[in-house]
Amino acid sequence: MESIKYLDLLKSRLSRFFDIKENYVLDDTSFDLMAKCEVVSERYFFTKGNVLESFNTYEYYLIKTIDNCDLESLRSITDKIKNNLQEYNVDENHMRTVVNVVFIVDKNVEREVENFIKKFKFYKSYKFGLKGWADISLILVNADDNKILTNRKGKEVVEFLLAN
Amino acid sequence: MSSLLIVLGSIIVFLLAYATYGSWLAKKWGIDINRKTPAHVINDGVDYVPARPQVLLGHHFASIAGAGPINGPIQAAVFGWVPVLLWVVIGSIFFGGVHDFGSLFVSIRHDGKSIGEVINDTMGKRGKQLFSIFAWLTLLLIVSAFTNIVANTFVSTPQAATSSVLFIILAVAFGYATNRKGVSLKLGTIVGVILLFLCVWLGTIFPLNLSLNIWIIILAIYIFVASTAPVWILLQPRDYLNSFLLYAMMIGAVIGIIIYRPSIQLEAVTGFKAANGQYLFPMLFVTVACGAISGFHSLVGSGTTAKQLDSEKDAKLIGYGGMLIEGVLAVVALITAAYLTKGEFSELLQGGPVNVFSNGIGVFMSKFGIPFEVGKTFVALAVSAFALTSLDTATRLGRFIFQEYFEKEGVEKQSPLTNKYVATTITVVLGAYLATGGYASIWPIFGSANQLLSALALMAVALWLKKAKKSFSMITIPMVFMLIVTLTALVFLIQSNFVNQNYILVIFPVLLFILAIVLAVSGYQILFKKEDLNN
User: Fold this and answer.
1) Range of the domain at A63
2) Domain assignment of residue A156, yes or no
3) By the 8 A CB rule, do B313 and B49 touch?
């Protein structure tokens, strides 16, 4: 499958539960697609206005097609996302934010890129965990042979990303 | 008389009631199996999702069952076991079951909105303010009653105190492992449940002996933290693990009674006036509280049941059936008191109703090989865990109502009383202070408030049925009876607390009495006078 077709497939899947922005720019890096899903969980008493307890979870997809996937550009992009999450302003009821960073390529990548993705790890706790935490899932999809490479956190979304 | 006969007899009566009266209610109200429920009409994939009735019943029962149906019948056993049993059985069938089933039915015919929203629409601004004061006072009573009950349990069963402290640590670790470390829920649950029983065993080895007032202070600090900390840190994982405690306790209790078959030794009826000076009418009906009917069943909850009902026919199983199962739990609780002699019962009751219950179930479970001390600690831990859940829910709610009452619309600088920590501190400190007075004086006032809430919910159901041109005759008697019970009980409570110079506890029943009168008058005007209900 071509990268563009695969991108369309993801867009159609995500559009059911996510708000989608195309050609999204984060700092000076452009992404083909940014998808955001905010889930507010609450328990109330008497009426919906009387919220007993509430917590919010956020899931983002940052999807980018890349022609030449080299380690340097990958590292530069992930550093920018990490910096953004370091300074992320969490809301009162924030519990969890997951950023799924998906790179789509058409050909095999070098071994060092594979290793970088597999070993990538990011976890940030806000105010000692009282304001929740953030994780990054790093995923590389080879649209040509439908092979998916992820870091440990990214394994949770592999099924969703499979082309078939 | 054999207790097994009482439990089996009650279950048979409940099953018959389910098949006959429950079906009659469904027919009278026009339960329509072909009508689409909100779960199908709205189906947003988030709140409104059809669920299998068995799953929904489990969720609903875990939400409504707590320490209430255990404490109430044991406390009321001072009037003898027969009146308590009769009220639990008759109350669950004709009062509590109708209340829960009716509330659920009205809710599904209102796009899954809670019964509270139906009431809210009919009360007006003044009514809502009055209701806020009433709700906050009721919540203070819950905080004080349950704080005292848990503290008493920890004093009488120090093993359960150690287990409870370890259980809280375990719940936090369980939440951390499943939420943050990606441990699967299945694996987490297996390990969590194993460790839960390890907590019980460790409790029996290292009992934590502290005085009642020290425990009240520790519990006050705990509920302050639990009700202000993010829910996913402690409350969510703890409530999840709690459900396993509930099921294990119920299974253990029923098997224990079947094997042991203890004989009833407590007096059948002690007379119209009990040894504590209270009269059977009306105090029995407010003391049993949640064991027969509970207003909180229709008001507290995630509001999920009505939104996930797959078919209208499931409302009978979940609404009516759920209350009858709670009736069975109340009967089991009663047995733990009734199999004792009068002297044993009085002695154990000094350690609180949970002490009676955990001692009884501990003895029953020892008949199939569970060491008595382990069994008793396990049950005391389970009931304390339910009470702690009620405690921090009540504190959260009390804080919310308090904040909202002092909030002014459109004003930038709000009063310090609207601050989350100030509102929580006031609620917790007052609740803990009242707790030092003992649960015996607080429990009947809490029972009255709860029964008054049930009358309010029944009134809302009757109002809806009248609006829908359906018969509400099955609601009239429970509603009127609960109002009479509440009013009479409140008069007795005002009098006794005044005589005992316990003036703080006079304020609560006086305010509840005023509210009951306001409700009775408005209810009469709405239901029995010819007027346009749309106005």
Assistant:
1) 3-43+56-161
2) yes
3) no
Question: The CATH number of the domain where A100 resides is what?
Answer: 3.40.1350
**Which of chain A's residues have a Cβ under 8 Å away from the Cβ of B180?**
133
User: Chain A closest CA to B133's CA: distance in Å?
Assistant: 14
pLDDT band for position B301 (cuts 50, 70, 90)? very low
> Is A50 among the domain residues?
no
CA gap B310, B326 in Å, rounded: 23
How far is the C-alpha of B176 from the C-alpha of A128, rounded, in Å? 13
Q: Residue A53: helix, strand or coil by DSSP?
A: strand
CB contact under 8 A, B233 and A43: no
- In this prediction the pTM is 0.79
CA distance A121 to B270: 70
| A48 domain residue, yes or no | no
ipTM above threshold 0.85: no
For residue B535, the model assigns a pLDDT of: 40
Domain assignment of residue A81, yes or no: yes
Q: How far is B215 from chain A (nearest CA, A)?
A: 26
Number of domains in chain A: 1
All residue ranges of chain A with pLDDT < 50 are none
Q: Is residue A65 within 8 Å of A1, Cβ to Cβ?
A: no
A28–chain B nearest CA distance, Å:
31
pLDDT for the residue B211 = 95
The answer to whether B303 contacts A44, with C-beta atoms less than 8 Å apart, is yes
B3-528 topology per CATH = Amino acid/polyamine transporter I (1.20.1740)
pLDDT of residue B5: 93
pLDDT over threshold 50, residue B458: yes
Helices (H), B109-211: 115-156, 158-179, 185-205
The tens digit of pLDDT for each residue in A137-160 reads: 999 999 888 889 999 999 989 988
- Taking alpha carbons only, the member of B332, B319, B175 closest to residue B253 is B332
